[in-house]
Amino acid sequence: MKLFYKNKNVLVTGGTGLIGTQLVNKLVKLKSRVIVTSLDKNMELPKGVEFIRSDLRFFENCLKLTKKIDYVFHLAGIKGSPEMAKKKPYQFMTPMLMFNANMLEASRINKVKRFLYTSSIGVYNPKKIMKEDDVWKTFPSRNDWYAGWTKRIGELNVQACQLFTKKMITIIVRPANVFGPYDNFDTKSAMVIPSLINKFINSKTGAVEVWGDGSNIRDFIFSSEVARAMLLIMFKKPKLPINIGSGKGVSIKKIVEIINEYFGNNHKLSWNKKYSGGDKKRVLDITRLKKLGFKHEINLEKAIYQTINWFKNNRHKKFEKYVAFSKL
Questions:
Q1: How far apart are CA 211 and CA 204, in angstroms?
Q2: What sections of the chain are H helices per DSSP?
Q3: Residue 38 DSSP code
Q4: Alpha carbon 8 to chain centroid distance?
């Protein structure tokens, strides 16, 4: 796999975000020539990495970015909690549809060799175990309606492109609930783990309110694990979509206990049951991922502790400025 990436021109859209930062660092170690694009340069990029600030809603920008590129990791999107997606669905859906279509077509025109599209666990309808082939048998969850359909439409576009041309290999991945450094830690719009970490660290009274009753079960995976999986999947070029997760369900209550234990169990917890916390269970089947040879390297507790340490050291800096596109 090292030779596959060595001296190749690799573009990472959304490369300053949660997964992108991990992916860029790993590509540099593999000796790729890495180009990162984002609306905000919020990280200190490794030496030799080229950063291009670009708005992917404009096709001309995407054409410029993909010239002489071998592989594209398309991670760009708008990340936020299901609650945020419900309140601002248009600001979520429209930019992402534009990102996806523009980057795919620009990559095809510029003869990119391989294009990896980042979908989401949000495309699934809730069930005990979510298998890749089950997506089109149902609709996305009502708790993830707009974001889920946006990602599904992106997948269809990628599949249609593959039918149209055999010259560019397209790949679809569906990550689970990803967390780690450079995440969105805003308690109003963030996903569960970064939101809780923020609450624990910034609680002035020692009291922490948790939404829901803690019984909801999710499949959590550390951002560095997702980046490793993406590198492997791009190399292996599977023809079918691939789930990227832990394959294990963990309750929100367990997550709270892990974070509280980090702080010496000194916080007083309260559960706001007015908020249901969305679907009861979301766990990915990762059989296909394992068959490609992927093995997890870090357990959940260690990953959460690393994320807490990173946020403690960086919380006063401005990272992951998600553009609302409120003027669309």
A1: 19
A2: 2-5, 18-29, 59-65, 82-87, 89-109, 145-164, 192-202, 223-236, 252-262, 287-291, 300-314
A3: E
A4: 23
State the Cα angle at 195 between 138 and 19, rounded to 5°.
65
pLDDT of residue 275: 72
Q: What is the tens place of the pLDDT at every residue in 271-290? A: 888 776 678 889 999 999 99
Residues 6+ apart with CB under 8 A from 21: 15, 43, 181, 182, 223
pTM of the model: 0.92
Residue 82: per-residue pLDDT = 63
CB-based contact 52:108 (threshold 8 Å): no
Residue 157's φ and ψ, nearest 5 degrees, are -65, -40
Neighbours of 287 (CB within 10 A): 13
Comparison of pLDDT for 47 and 85, the residue scoring more:
47
